[in-house]
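#onboarding

Welcome to the new folks! Below is a worked example of what a typical request in this channel looks like: someone posts a single protein sequence, and someone else replies with the predicted structure as tokens. Don't worry about understanding the tokens yet, we'll cover that in week two.

Example request:
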Amino acid sequence: MRVYRENGVREVCGLVSRFVATDDLTFEELKHLRQLSREVDDLLEESLKHRENLEKTFARLFAPVMHRLGARGMCVTTLDEELVSNTFHHGDFDGQFPGALLTGARWGVRLLETGHTFASQQLDLVGVPVGSFGILYQGDRTADAARLARELDAVAEQLDTVLASVQTAAEKHQLLVTINSFLANRVFEIGMDGAVRALCEKVKLPGFLLVFRDAVESGALHYRMYRYGQLEHASNGRPFEALDEAIRAYGPNLITPQDKHLKQVLGGHRAVETVLISGVGDAHGLGKIMVWSAGDGFSAYTMDLLRLLASTLSQRLIDYNRERIHLSQFFSSATIDELLKDPDYERRYLLPRAEEVGLLFADINGFTRICEQVLERPERIGKFVDDWSAEAVRIVYRHHGVFDKMVGDCVIGLFGPPFFKDAAGQRSVNALKAAIEIQDFTRDTMSKHPEIARLSEILKVPGLGVAIGVNLAVSFCGLFGPNRNYTSFSTGMNQTARLQSLGGFRETLVMKDAWEAAVRFEDPALAGVRVGPLEETPVKNVAQPLRYYRFLP
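Example response:
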């Protein structure tokens, strides 16, 4: 130990690291230090029991410890619960801010210009600094520097762990807030990428994989794979062939708790997995997180952070799925993917707007008679309508349409929404191509439906038929009503409904303007379509007669 002066202040350096190892430690001092250590431990434990914050913890601690030591003041500079540097202090520092005494790493025992003695040291846990601590003694006590240093060390030894745990908890909380802010992004993929980057800035994660279920197509899985926080593979643009093969082979089973195929895909990495669930007793997982190391495993701190991420991500996937499920009532999966790339998609694409829209109404011929004479029971009627309408809507989607609604057994499709990127003629073409495919499906596939086997015999018709009306008209499209349904309002909608009602068995009728717009567009898919002469028919509740063409067989 040596004593020296610097700028007029005498200092004592070379502190003993732990009081129990010194040669000149008397039994009385050892007893004193043990009692001091125990008192500090008891006070901190009491504070922990009452879940007090740092301010209350130090308010509980300082006064009794100062009394035992005969100290003039005590101070600690550390990061508080908000991870902001703060100095907690008690006692008389002669008007000087105590935090200034703990700056500059001037650890040891020194005589201040005020004539009082200040002992200080850095607080750390396994080499990681967590703050600094000082005790102010009355008068010149530098002759007792070794004893003061041991008292300081006895208190600091208890503070290290407490402050480290507070900072760790605060860091976890702050990271959780950061992850939540990223995952709040309306574009799920962007938010996910940011959340993983934030996590990897705190802990070393060589590999991170998220596999999650498609909320609309229940058998489909999506994935995003990261290396040290950077996106490496994704199902929507950067495929990982081995994982794609596993998804094709095992499907949703990959995200069940007992499945081991994902670990096999990772090629022997030491991986840890967490299944994401939507709630207690949920039979279907939302997805699965897998992380892997370079071979040295993960610390308890890392695993705790992963559990926090898994919990937050589960809730985000629930919200994301809820959003996709709502949109899937009207839009195809491809359209939903495109919408969700834009965080402002509702304002940009789904607010009601007037646009020229291709309109399609498709209604099963003689449905009332089919229900009464063939299907008969309500559950059979419901299943039949489900079977037919599910494929009819898929056909609408295939031709870039939107499913407006079903009215009874009538499927209504809109062509153009929600992006309105194509020309009006193309919207008409798409509606007509959908009409042709719905006719083919109904005639060739649905006529073989088990419930229709007796149709020809009973109703004297060659299978199942559908009447379709197609129009091109300005409509007001967007989300409407308390359920936020995407639909369209216009006189053109009413005209199309009336037009469809004029159609006979397996007939498609198209309004004059819609047909002429499609013909001008010269789509090859319509090259073989023949229409009859222009017809004109007055209909109920429409001011002008409908002018339309009828597709010829």
